[in-house]
């Protein structure tokens, strides 16, 4: 039961999880993401992770009460996968905002975040190119992350498969892009690079900057 003993994300109070309410309407991210795609992604895919997570947690509570070691062990993978899906998607929604509300607008050039990006990649444009190139090359399903290293407090890029979470790799995520096919197929078919090129137009840099500043404390 290594997961449950060592990770605060996978053990503790087994509260029921709920689908987060978006801060924008399903049609507000157009033309980058269509209302149809966003509604399906949020209300169907994300909700499915939550439903599966809650069901597995109920089974885990029962198994813990009965000290059913075999059942507890068998639930680890299900809980890890679906909780990861819930956490990653929750961050993804917060990282997006409509163009009319400032989507794509960078923080001030003198901000600590922009200066750190420039220090690591030369410019924000260079960072976007780097991020897109690496994330587009993920085989199968996964996520690209920009985060703050929990020890050095420096920015670090990380790509992870499926629903792995960066917290388990010493990284506090401040920005993520979902490159599972369901995140873009409806609008971009199998051309992942086109999705990645356009999604920066709706990135909520204010949210990213806030998360960066919080992670420095």
From TrEMBL:
Keyword Metal-binding: yes
Domain Manganese/iron superoxide dismutase C-terminal, chain residue ranges per copy: 111-211
Protein name (Swiss-Prot/TrEMBL): Superoxide dismutase
Chain segments annotated as coiled-coil in the UniProt record: 46-73
GO molecular function per UniProt: manganese ion binding; superoxide dismutase activity
Family: Belongs to the iron/manganese superoxide dismutase family.
Organism: Paramecium primaurelia
Keywords linked to the UniProt accession: Coiled coil, Iron, Metal-binding, Oxidoreductase
Cellular component GO terms, alphabetical: mitochondrion
EC number from the UniProt entry: 1.15.1.1
Function text: Destroys radicals which are normally produced within the cells and which are toxic to biological systems.
Catalyzed reactions: 2 superoxide + 2 H(+) = H2O2 + O2
InterPro entries, sorted: Fe/Mn_Superoxide_Dismutase, Mn/Fe_SOD, Mn/Fe_SOD_C, Mn/Fe_SOD_N
Any one Pfam family match given in the protein's UniProt record, by short name: Sod_Fe_N
């Amino acid at each position: 039961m290594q997961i449950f003993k060592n990770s605060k994300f996978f053990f503790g109070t087994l509260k029921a999880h709920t689908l987060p309410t978006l801060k924008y309407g399903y049609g507000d991210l157009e033309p980058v993401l269509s209302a149809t795609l966003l509604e399906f992604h949020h209300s169907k895919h994300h909700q499915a992770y939550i439903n599966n997570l809650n069901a597995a947690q109920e089974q885990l509570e029962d198994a813990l009460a009965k000290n059913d070691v075999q059942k507890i062990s068998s639930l680890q993978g299900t809980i890890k996968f679906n909780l990861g899906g819930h956490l990653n998607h929750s961050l993804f929604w917060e990282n997006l905002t409509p163009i009319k509300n400032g989507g794509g607008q960078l923080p001030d050039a003198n901000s600590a975040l922009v200066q750190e990006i420039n220090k690591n990649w030369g410019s924000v444009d260079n960072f976007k190119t780097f991020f897109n190139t690496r994330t587009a090359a993920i085989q199968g399903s996964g996520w690209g992350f920009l985060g703050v290293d929990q020890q050095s407090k420096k920015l670090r890029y990380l790509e992870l498969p499926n629903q792995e979470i960066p917290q388990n790799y010493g990284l506090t995520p401040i920005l993520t892009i979902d490159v599972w096919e369901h995140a873009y197929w409806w609008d971009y078919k199998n051309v992942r690079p086109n999705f990645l090129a356009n999604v920066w137009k709706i990135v909520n840099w204010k949210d990213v900057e806030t998360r960066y500043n919080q992670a420095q404390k």
